[in-house]
Amino acid sequence: MNSFGRNFRITIFGESHGPLIGITIDGADTGIPLSPDDFIEDLARRKSGAVGTTPRQESDMPEIVSGIFEGHTTGAPITILFRNSNTRSSDYARFVVHPRPSHADYVASRKFQGFNDPRGGGHFSGRLTLPLVAAGVVAKKMLPETTFETHLTKIGGSSDPSRFEEIIREAMKNGDSVGGTVECRITGIRVGMGSPFFDSAESIMSHLLFSIPAVKGVEFGSGFAVADTFGSQNNDPIVDPTGTTATNHDGGINGGLTNGNPIILRVAIKPTPSISAAQLTLNTQTGSCEELRITGRHDACIALRAAVVVEAAAAIALADLNTDPLLK
């Protein structure tokens, strides 16, 4: 389905090369000041332009078409649109029969019996993260005491920011792409958000984080490293009545509930599947593996633009959790 959330609910729509993309947000608090200017900062963080990002340039100007009256939210669903104008659909025509490796071309065609829109990846495109960022702006307005610090910590296995551009340029020279890791630190979260088991705070956030195209891994706190430690090393002793802990290996969550300490999460972003280096992959028309060279406009490192998307997804999930009536 294309909707997420129970009390703060979003529905995403549109295709990369269609006339527009957008999102409808239901359950936002009433009376929140909201205008197109509120979106500019976060939308700019997602824009291309840096070395390794797509040459495709769009205005990405939000059009708020419902749920706002005299500059404030009304309580009705908020719908935000973004027009697509800089498209080159001809770049994608051959992927209908010669699907790109590690992309959605093949599985989308199978699932939707060939009726899916293949242009620019259609509804599977990273372009759809734009309205997700817009929903994150609204979500953060519903969490006024909460602070998000999100940044890229690794590219191509290196955690040295001074090498990031060098690594990306080397990948581009080889007709290749490179992945990265994004870390998000969230402070100002109250105790008790989430539920045991199926609606744990990690479950809800991970659900949305994994919906971001190219995300292949999510970890909280010390993450996979905890498997190599002892309990005496990994436990987070509580040091005061507010629940502050001496360490934060659990990443701010115990038993599925936020514990009041910073939520720390990291997201692994895979290398962009669309690369110009030759690849042998199935041509469904001939039934044989044939050489595919991908042309067009693609990010060599999509992780460069992913930090604000990760932040938005976390904020949306927390806004939904924050509506729990037991916390009122």
Can you offer a commentary on this structure?
With 328 residues, the chain is of the alpha+beta class. The protein has seven helices and 15 strands. A five-stranded antiparallel sheet has the order 1-2-3-7-4, with helices on one face. It has a four-stranded antiparallel sheet with strand order 8-9-13-10. A two-stranded antiparallel ribbon has the order 5-6. A hairpin with a 4-residue loop joins strand 14 and strand 15.
Q: What's the order of the H and E elements?
A: EEEHEEEEHHEHEHEHEEEEEH
Count of strand segments: 15
What profile does the largest beta sheet have? Answer: 5 strands, antiparallel
**Which strand order spans the largest sheet, edge to edge or round the barrel?**
1-2-3-7-4
- Helical residues, percent: 10-25%
Rounded to an integer in angstroms, the radius of gyration calculated over CA atoms is 21 Å
User: Helix tally?
Assistant: 7
How is this fold's topology laid out?
Layout: E1 3-4, E2 9-14, E3 20-26, H1 40-46, E4 63-66, E5 68-69, E6 72-73, E7 78-83, H2 105-111, H3 129-141, E8 147-155, H4 164-173, E9 180-187, H5 201-209, E10 215-220, H6 231-234, E11 253-254, E12 257-258, E13 263-269, E14 279-283, E15 288-292, H7 307-321
